[in-house]
Amino acid sequence: MADVFIAINQEFLDELGDMSVEEFEALLGTPNAPGPPWPAFEKLGRDGGRLLVRAADELGCSDQDLQRLALSGARFDTLTPSGPAGELWVELLGESDGGVEESASGEGEFDGELVFDGSGAAATGGTPLPDVEGAMLGDDGVGPLPLGTVNELPASSYLNFLSEVCFDEEHCVRDAVFTDPSEPDEGSGEWVAGQPFHVRHGFINDGAEPLGDGFDLVLYVFPMDQPSEQDDAELGPTSRYVSDYVLRGTSDQCGPTYRTQTGPETCEWFVHDFPDGLPEGRFALWALWEAQCSAWLELGFTDSCDDASEIVSLFSSGVDSPFF
To answer: In this predicted model, what pLDDT tens digit does every residue of 191-213 receive, in sequence order?
Structure first.
């Protein structure tokens, strides 16, 4: 994990409970302090009512710790302007700081990997991040068969990455579930080893023409050797899968804008078919929606592009699931 520089304000601490910035400051470096990993933060100084801290691997703070911290009521937003070159400044916001300009996308990135985005829900409840840079090809990497090549979905169960768990109206976490075709409204995070399943997610496209180059739903899959997402699991190598084919259908949850959809839309799905399922054990699975930066600009997930044609991912969802 790259060093992450964080400004902690009173609004965030109000979300956690009755704690002042001064009381939080006193917890830093305190062994066995209650709550998220406060001792893993190094105090850098004060900026008005904000406490500036640093989180880093050497301090014992991991990306997963930061994800869990967000579930305590925080939202990660890039500050403008950013810190010195190579440093990412973020602020943990509760409702709103009011005095700090937030990024338009509301995204937060750690070590180049997307964890939080502008959807309004955290991407995971604590699933470890994939090794995106070091991922091996899980398939031939050629890319999906184009629209019209395949005309129906697999008959297997559906792994829905857009399922949510909400603690209240403002704090929601995407928590993927496997659903049986005969019971589409029921789902579970547990699945039978070797049993087929598929993934189908994408982007709204009401036009006659396909979305075109650059759009895809990429999956990252890797094994975990611990049965609980709260443990420090030993992680196996990450495999990267591009989608198998593109298919159109109707859905009221179509990709990054699912939370603002008011009804069914024509969705261009990128389908992953796992006809042999996954082996026994616990696996982490991450879905990353990819598109040209210009598309994310239109969707409102960023306010600028250095290169409009650059393929980037500004929306993701992860889950770790036992296969019995």
So the answer is: 788 989 999 999 999 888 999 88
